UniProtKB/TrEMBL annotation:
Originating species: Alloprevotella rava F0323
Name of the protein described by the UniProt record: Uncharacterized protein
Superkingdom assignment: Bacteria
Amino acid sequence: MAQNKFDLDNLRLRQLELEKKMQKKREDIQQNFSTLFAPPPPSHNIIENWMNKAQQTAAIVDGILFGYKMFKGFRKIFPRSHKK
């Protein structure tokens, strides 16, 4: 009879290792998320403020246009039923 390499002690140790790795990944994701979505640092230069506002406005417009295109794409896939 072959020896079973998956006994309870090995499984528990493996589970603990995986839980530690998952916790580390959670912390990494949280750190990346907070740095990605952090507001830009305030500047004391009026030109930089205008550039930041222009970038924010462009990002908002881009998001709206992307949403509109996605909506139109979904309308092609799922057309409105015309009841007579």
